[in-house]
Amino acid sequence: MATTNAGAPSAQGETATAASPKPVTNDFSIQIATVNGSGSQSANSVLLRSIFAMGVPVSGKNLFPSNIAGLPTWFTIRASKYGYVARRKEIDILIAMNAETAREDILSLRPGAAAIYEETANLKQYRDDVTCYPVPFDKLTAAVCPEAKLRKLVKNMIYVGVAAQLLSIDMKAVEGALRMQFAKKQKAADLNWAAVEAGFNYAAQSLTKQDPFVLERMHATEGKIIIDGNAACALGAMFAGVTVVTWYPITPSSSVVEQLIDYLKKYRVEKDGKASFAVVQAEDELAAIGMVLGAGWAGARAMTSTSGPGISLMAEFTGLGYFAELPGVIFDIQRVGPSTGLPTRTAQADLLSIAFLSHGDTKHVMLLPGSVKECFEFAGAAFDLAEHLQTPIFVLSDLDLGMNNWMSDPFEYPDKPLNRGKILSAEQIEEMKKSGGWGRYQDRDGDAIPYRTLPGTDHPQAAYFTRGSGHNEKALYSERPEDYQNLMERLARKFETARTLVPAPVVVQTGQSKVGIIAFGTSDFAVTESRDQLKKEYGVEADYLRLRAWPFSREVRDFVASHERIYVVEQNRDAQMLSLLKLDLPAGETPKLRSVRHFNGLPIDARSVTDEIVLQEGI
Amino acid sequence: MAATVTNPGPKVNRIGLPVLEYRGSKTTLCAGCGHNAISERIIDAMYEMGVQPERVMKLSGIGCSSKSPAYFMSRSHSFNSVHGRMPSVATGALLANKTMLGIGVSGDGDSASIGIGQFVHLMRRNLPMIYIIEDNGVYGLTKGQFSATADIGSKLKTGVVNDLPAIDTCSLAIQLGATFVGRSFSGDKRQLLTMLKAAIAHKGTVMLDVISPCVTFNDHEGSTRSYKYMQDHEEPVSEVGFVPVFEEIDVEYDAGTTFDVTMHDGSLLRLRKLHEDYNPTDRALAVKTLMESHEKGEVLTGVFYIDTQKAAFTDLLNLVDEPLATLPQERTRPSKQVLEEVMARLK
Q: Quick one: pLDDT band at residue B257, thresholds 50, 70, 90?
C-alpha cells in the first residue's frame, strides 16, 4: 500500500522459490487491503481475536478514508511475542482484496514477505521475491454462499480461513472468535464459518507453505480484554457518575458517546424505567460545550466529546468556563488538522490550541492517557478534577487510541468515592455568616479553589451571579484593576494546585544514562519498542518519562535536569509538547530538548523514532 | 380597652415574602430603558405568583438585555453567559436540575443574529423555561447598530435606513415548536404582567418577544421601535386574563368571544378575542395572522399560540424525578459487579 515505506525489491532478496527459511514465530504483521464498506471489519476482527485467543499479544489498526464506501482501506494486525503494539512499517503478509490497489500493495512489500490474493489478479507478475498465494476467492465464495447478495461479505471470511491455515492459527480459536462476533446471529455465524472452513481447506489442499511466518500458542493474553479507547473513555465516564452528556457527531470521537449511550441505557436506567442521565445531540459544538458548562454550573457531572474542529468552536465558551470557574469534561479524540485536515487519520496536534484555548489569559488542564486503561482511569479523574478545581478539564486521546482495538488488563473498579468538590449546603452558608459570610470567589483554604453553591440551595444567601465579566470575591460586577488582577492571580495559583493533583508522569530510568526520552499518549507504544531497539542495536540505554498531564508535575523538571539530552517524541509538526516544556523549564535547561516528530497521519512507529534519535545522537 | 396599634409590617405574598425579596441590584441601564420596566414586571409576576426565589435560575447572553437579570431577584442564581449562547447554558442547567424554574433574558441581537442557531434549537426542544427577548431593534452596548429584528424602512439616528427584512422571532418560535408564544410591550404593564404570570404556570418553552424601546439609540422619529411608534401601532390580538390556581375563578366564560386554557398547574389563561380570526391553538393561523398584521404595519401583541399538551424536553428524556445534579453516588456509579460483567464480555 502507498502508506508503507518499504524499499524497492532487492535483487538479493529471498524469493518464493528459495529454500524454506527459518520460521518467524509470533512476530509479524498482516495487512488486509480492502474496499471501504465491503464488510471486512468482521473478518478482520475475527482474525485479530483468533490470534488473541492463542495467547499471542496482538494489535490492530484500521487505516480508513473519509468515505462511506468505495475508497481503499487497510487493516493491519501485528502479532508480537514481545508485546509490541505500535504500528510497524514493514508488512509480512499482505491479503490483497482490493483490485484497485493490489499492484501498489504488493510492490510496497519487502522481499521475503507473502501475499494472498484473488488468483485472477496474477500479482506474481510484479514480484518474484514475495511468496505468492493465489486463491480463487470468488469461486470458493459462490460454493459456500448461494445467496449472491451476501457474497461480498462472506468472501472476507475466506481469507480468514486461508490465513488460519497458512499461519497455523488454531481453528478452535477462530471458531470461538467468530461465534463471539456473530453472537446473536446463528445463521450468519454458520454461513461465515463455512466460508472460513472453505478457505482453510483450499489452502491445505492447494497451497504450499513457503513463507516463514507462523503462530504458536502462548499465554501472554490470559485474563486480558480487548477494547477501543473510545469505549474505555465511555466506561470511565459512566463509572465516574456522568449525568449530562452532550455531543455533536464528529470522527473520530462519535463512538465515545455512541458507546456511552449503549452503556448508560443498559446500566443507568433505574427500576422504574427512568434515566439517571441526559444525553443531548446538540446543534453544534458551540452548544455542546454551552450545555456542559450550564449543567456543570447547576451541579451535574457533564461532558462532551469532540475532535479538533469542535475544539476550535468551543474556544470562547472554554474561556468563560475558566474565568467563571465552571466544571466540565471535554474529550478530544485528536485527528489531523487544521480544518478538516485528514479526518480519519491520527495526530497529537491539539496540545497548544487546547492548553491556551480561548482569548485572554487562559490555561487548561489536559490529561493525556497512554492506553485504554488510562482512558478509563483518566475519564474518572477528569470528572473529579473538574469539580474539585471548578474548571474545564480536557482529556486528549487520539484516533489511533480511540478507534482501534487494544489489549489491556481488565479495568479496576474505582477505589475512591466521587470527589464532588467544594459545594456549600444551606447549613454551611449559615455557619459562614459568623465569619464574614460566604463569597463565591474567595480563597478560604489557601489552595486558590473557592467554594460554590448550586442553584436550588435553600438559603437566602446561596445565590450568586455568574458572569464572564470582571467580578470581585463576592461575585459582584467589578472593573476595579485590583479585583481583576487578584482574580487572575488566584486562577494562576489554582493552576499550580492542579499541578499537584493531576496524574504524575511515569518515569523509567537507570540513573546512569545521559539520554532521556519524553513522550505521551500513543507515542508511548513506539517509544517503548524504540528503547529496546536503541539498546539492542546501538547499545544506547535511554531513560524515559511518559507525560500524563499538563500542567507538568515536579518530576518533569527533575528528569530533564538529570539528563544531558532529552528527545521529545510527538505526533505533530510544530513540536507542540516541546514548546510547552520550554515554557515550564528554567531557561538553562531548554537547550537540552531535541525534537522527534511524526506527522503523516499514520500512527508513529518505533523505527522512525530510533532512526531519528540515532541520527541526532550522531551514532 | 385601649386600642393597640400594631405595625402591620410590609405586605407579603402567599409564601410570606415581601416584594423587596424579589428585587435585584440597582440598574445600570439608561433611565427610561424598556428593559427596566420588564425587570419590574418580572419582579411583580414572581412576587404575585409566590415563587420561591431560590427555585429560580436566571440566564442571559450578552448585551443590555442580558445585563438585566442582575436587576431583579438577587436571591436567585444567575448566569450571564456568552453572546447568543444562553440557550445552550439554559439547556444544560435545566437538565442538571429540572426542578428549577428557568427564566432566560436575551435581546434581539443576542437571539436573532449571533444566537439564532441556539435560539431555534431551544424552541424546537420545547425546553421548559421562560425565554424573553427584550427587543429594541438595535445593538445598544455597541452604540446603536441595527439588529435583525429591525423593520424594513426603520431609520437610525444617523439617517441609515434598514433595507433587510425583520426576523419575526414569534413566527419562528411557533413554527419550531415552542408551546407558549406571545409578544408584548414594555410599556403595557397589565398585559406584560399577565403574560408573565401565565408563563410561570406553563411547562414548556415560553417565548415572549417584548418590544422594549432603546431611549438612547432607537426612540426617535423614523424608528419602528420607539415608544411613540408602539403607542400608535400596537394591536392586541387578544385581551389576556390569568387566574392562578390559588385564586377563585369569578368571571363568566363566553364561548363565542373567549378562549380558556387550563395551564399545567391548574391555573387558567383566559384570552378574549379582539381579532375575528383568532385561535391561539392553531399554529398555521397564528403565523398567518402575524404575517398579515406585519404587512399592515401593525405590531401585534398578546398570546399568539399555546399548547399545553406537548411534552417538554425534560419529559422526553424520561429523567428521574430528582435533579441529576445531586443524585447520590449510589445512583450514578454502577456497582463493581457491573464493571466485572462488562470486562468479562471483553475477554
A: confident
Contact A241/B75, CB-based, under 8 Å?
Answer: no
A263 and B CB contact within 8 Å: yes
The domains of chain B, with CATH numbers, are 19-238+274-321 (3.40.50.970)
DSSP letters, B273-291, are E-STT--TT-HHHHHHHHH
Owning domain of residue A130? 24-214
| Sign of CA pseudo-dihedral B51, B57, B61, B67 | positive
3-state secondary structure string across A309-361: HHHHHCHHHHHHHHHHCCCEEEEEEEEECCCCCEEEEECCCCHHHHHCCCCCC
Q: Which helix (H) or strand (E) is B182 found in, with range?
A: strand B180-185
Q: What are the grid coordinates assigned to A361, written together?
A: 489569559
A300–chain B nearest CA distance, Å? 4
Instruction: Identify whether A483 is part of a domain.
Output: yes
| CA separation for the pair A39, A24 (Å, rounded) | 30
Give yes or no: residues A103 and A199 share one domain: yes
Indicate the number of domains in chain A.
4
CA distance B120 to chain A (A): 10
Higher pLDDT, A38 or B98: B98
Complex-level ipTM: 0.96
Kindly tell me if the per-residue pLDDT of A296 is higher than 50. yes
Q: Do B326 and A299 count as a contact with CB atoms less than 8 A apart? A: yes
Across the interface, do B80 and A410 touch by the CB < 8 Å criterion? no
Q: Same domain for A602 and A537?
A: yes
Cα–Cα distance measured from residue A598 to residue A610, given in angstroms and rounded to the nearest whole number: 12
First to last CA, chain B: 91
* Among A73, A103, A98, A92, CA closest to A6: A92
Q: What confidence tens digit (pLDDT) does each residue in A103-142 have?
A: 999 999 999 999 999 999 999 999 999 999 999 999 999 9
Same domain, A385 and A455: no
Is the distance from CB of A32 to CB of A136 less than 8 angstroms?
no
Residues A246 and A390 grouped into a single domain: yes
